[in-house]
């Protein structure tokens, strides 16, 4: 009887995990608030940035709310909201990651993460990372939205290099109306003249002594003019894999240009490098 109950519980648990994984996979993105309720400021201790970064590593198309592209804001029910809930006492910090849909229904809640660190930054980071162990085990692979028209109109989603295929100018010509005997009767006709231009914009993006040179397959990473690595797109079209001789991490296009998020050995803080055109 005992073994039957255990088997039944395991069966129910596997069904719940399968349902949760399906719900997370079926959504197209996850948005993280700029500030969690248990903190007194936006992205305090980089907790919100860390959550976004860990979500991206776990297969999600994740954004801070302030960085959510306009075309996704127009489709709130295509995405989920991920919030970190925290419970603190004198001994330890406990956190969970709660996913809700556009109606406020809880879709999935992670296992509890804990930390005994006294430093706030270290305790939140350690606890949240532990909470993500259960999320990573779901093997989520969100598929991005293929809204071509919205993507073209949304600068957040434009990835260099950009190729200008056509430049359109207008000229006016004077023609005589058909069937008219009055040669003085003239009509102005606007004619669109299409000039094809095959020019790739390859302006490098800069961050201090680093630069990114765009090309068809991603970016080359340069340091003081010397090639140190590459940035290549992944199966998740909004996320890039960064691999250089100095560091590795993930990248994504943003309003400013391109952002790389990376870890530094021995530090809990996520380092953000924002590359822009000079």
Describe this structure in words.
This protein is α+β, with helices and mostly antiparallel strands. It has 2 domains: 12-149, Rossmann fold; 202-276. It has 5 helices and 16 strands. It has helices at 2-26, 47-57, 70-73, 120-136, 148-153, and strands at 29-32, 62-64, 79-88, 93-100, 106-109, 113-115, 162-175, 187-201, 205-207, 210-215, 218-223, 226-233, 240-244, 248-253, 257-263, 270-276. The strands form 3 sheets. The chain has an 8-stranded antiparallel β-sheet, covered by helices on one side. Strands 1, 2, 3, 4, 5 and 6 form a 6-stranded mixed β-sheet that branches. A two-stranded antiparallel sheet has the order 7-8. Strand 15 and strand 16 form a beta hairpin. It is globular and about 50 Å long. The model is unreliable at 4-19, 147-180 and 183-201 (pLDDT under 50).
